[in-house]
Amino acid sequence: MRPVISVIMPVYNTAQFVYAAVDSILKQTFNDFEFIIIDDASTDNTRQILDEVSDCRIVRINNEAHTGNYSCRNQGLALAQGQYIAVMDGDDIALNDRLEVQFKFMETNPKYLAIGSNAEVFYENSKSYISQLLSDSDKIKVRLLGGNVFFHPTLFFRKEIFDLYNICYNKEYYYAADYDLMLNISRIGEVTNIPEPLVRYRVHQNQITSSKHQEQMIYADYIRLKQLDFFKLRPSTEETMIHLSLMKSYPVPNSKLIKAQKWCNKLLEKNHVLNLYNEEYLFAFFKERLKHSILTKKL
Q: Exposure of 180 by Cβ count < 10 A (0-12 exposed, 13-18 middle, 19+ buried)?
C-alpha cells in the first residue's frame, strides 16, 4: 500500500546534525509516510550514523559519487510513492506535528499546490526568532519577483504537480533551484505559507545559504531576470541593472531614480495588459522598493 506522504531528505556530511533531523521525522504524530534518505557520498560518518537507525518507513539510497543537493532531490522525487512530498534537510528539526498540520491543510484546501510554513530560526550561539512569512498567495507571487519567500525545508507539495507539469529542481540554477521551483509552481496555481512555525531551521556556516551565499545570489539574479519574460520585455543593460537593484532593495544612484520610476511604470503597464499579478499588490511592491532604494542611498 502506498504511503500518503514521501519525505525526501538528501544528506551530505551532516554527521553533527543528522540524527536529530531523522529522529524528528520518525517521531511525527502523522505516521503514514515513507522517509527517503539519500546520502550523497558523504565523507564524514553520516552514513554510519544512518546505519544505526532502523525503521521500516526509511528508504535508504547511498550515492557512490557526489551529485549535489538538488540532483538528490530529483532522485527522491523519481522514487517517491506518496500523494504528497515533504521536503526535509539533514541539519534541521521538524516539529512533531509538522506532517499532520500540512497534510490536514492540503486536504481541506485543495486549491493550493504547494505550501511552506514559518520556522523557528536558530543559531549556533542559541539565539533564535520566529519568522513572519507572507501567507497571501497573490502577495507571494508578487514578492517572488524579488526573491524566494519560502523556507525550503518547510515545503510540502502535491506529488501530482511534478507528474502533470514535468516540474523538477532545475540544476542550471544550482544553489537557487528551490527558488526557481516555487516560482514555477506559483505560475500554475496557488501557494502559501502556514503562519505557525513547523520546522526549527538551523543556521550554521556549512549550509548552502552560508557557504555558497555569493553563488546563490548570482543564480537568484538569473531567476529574477527570467521573470521579465512574463512581461514580454527585453530590458536594456541599464534597465537590467536597475531592475536587479530594485528587486534586491539595493540603492539606486540618484542619476538613475527617474529611469527606475519609468521602469516600474513600464512593468505596471505591461501587467495591466497581461494580467500577470494583482495590480494593487504589484504597485505597492514597486513603491516600497523605490522608497527603500532611496532611503538606503541616503543612509
A: buried
Q: Which of 91, 60, 93 is nearest to 75 (CA)?
A: 60
Instruction: Quote the number of domains for the chain.
Output: 2
Of 167, 209, 191, which Cα lies nearest the Cα of 69?
209
Looking at 160, 176, 211, the residue that finishes a domain is: 211
C-beta neighbour count of 230 within 10 angstroms: 16
Summary count for the chain: helices (H), strands (E): 12, 9
- 88: domain CATH number is 3.90.550.10
Q: CA-to-CA distance for 209 and 220, rounded, in angstroms?
A: 12
Angle between helices 237-247 and 279-298 (to 10 degrees): 90
Residue 47: its H or E element? helix 46-51
Residues in the chain: 299
Domain assignment of residue 180, yes or no: yes
- Tell me whether residue 216 is in a domain: no
Closest alpha carbon to 196 in 139, 138, 120: 120
Amino acid at 206: N
pLDDT in tens, 144-195: 999 999 999 999 999 999 999 999 999 899 889 999 999 999 999 999 999 9
Q: What is the pLDDT of residues 241-276, one digit of tens each?
A: 999 999 999 999 889 999 999 999 999 999 999 999
Domain holding 34, by residue range, is 5-211
Judge if 81 and 153 occupy the same domain: yes
In a domain, 223, yes or no: no
Instruction: Specify whether 12 is located in the same domain as 52.
Output: yes
Query: Do residues 46 and 12 make contact, with C-beta atoms less than 8 angstroms apart?
Result: yes
